[in-house]
């Protein structure tokens, strides 16, 4: 019987690593070209539609002028002039109504008809080519949110989520342990643009220690580790509270330090129930459905879903447990005992190739990337600050990586490979 807790260890072949790097660069460039073609395709389609609309408008104007001129025809000296005007209008109408020549575009040093180019682009766009960031080329491009309580600053930030409809960045600001068991809380969610500009923030009187966050359609889900609950806010101007579930406990619908959460395509909410060693599944209105597994999961911290699998970041070694949607353990990834592995993982995310990006709470200032087999690929560093822990992270639509570094000069940092 397979031992699902056994570390996945494989020798690293430098030639294979180089080949993989070259392949990643090739795919990245291909996707950049694909994105450029897509933009050009939409520009050409809009231009063609605008030309047709302009012809129709001109035709209607000429028809109106002709009708108006015919109505003014009188048996006088101006009749001959008016008839000539009608003849000119009819000539222009014929020109407008004549089939326009095909638009040709210079593409690949060849002149191709627009319709043919659109058909070719359509074929390219239908291809399922994974868009993968070039992690080796990622550099810090934005650093915002110094430690302050004022709007636009960040105090004890925890997790980050992206609203992919607007590209807005949502950051939870939670509880900070001071001394003798005392807490300092800020209990709010701050919102930034994809460039790090501050937009807004919201909170609720029942929140004490907001931690994890997930966005699905117009719903914002937030876990609270101090009141042991999950909150549901509506994505509206004042972010009204729609539902709340949970108190401290171990029964279904109760939590013991819920950490992070994610939402499936059908709206089910998966919550990591840390000290209860389980994953609770709720519906979109926060009504409990079931536990993901019957067997305990060692202190789960973060969770992500793919079409056919569930990835859980937990205290086990390896720290990534991959399960089926029925809760069956499939494999374990990302060892915590080998060189270049994570020491104290807290959050993670996946790209489309199922590469695993993990934030390390150990004081090394690194975000570490593993491939889908759990083999270390690359580490992203905070330049000039190599001893800061990392927490929440997420990939934006344009493949930038947003990371929370709670003990650095700037708490919110954005890395890009563009």
Automatic annotation (TrEMBL):
Matches recorded under Gene3D superfamilies: TolB, C-terminal domain (2.120.10.30)
Keyword match Repeat: yes
SUPFAM superfamilies referenced in this protein's UniProt entry, alphabetically: Calcium-dependent phosphotriesterase
Tagged with keyword Transmembrane? no
Entry keyword set: Repeat
Q: What is this protein called?
A: Tripartite motif-containing protein 2-like
Organism's domain of life? Eukaryota
Give the matching InterPro entries: 6-blade_b-propeller_TolB-like, NHL_repeat, TRIM-NHL_E3_ligases
Which molecular function term from Gene Ontology is one that the record holds?
ubiquitin protein ligase activity
Q: Name one Pfam family in it.
A: NHL
Give the GO terms filed under biological process for this record. Answer: proteasome-mediated ubiquitin-dependent protein catabolic process; protein polyubiquitination
**NHL repeat residue intervals:** 242-285
Provenance organism: Oopsacas minuta
Q: What CDD domains does this protein's entry cite?
A: NHL
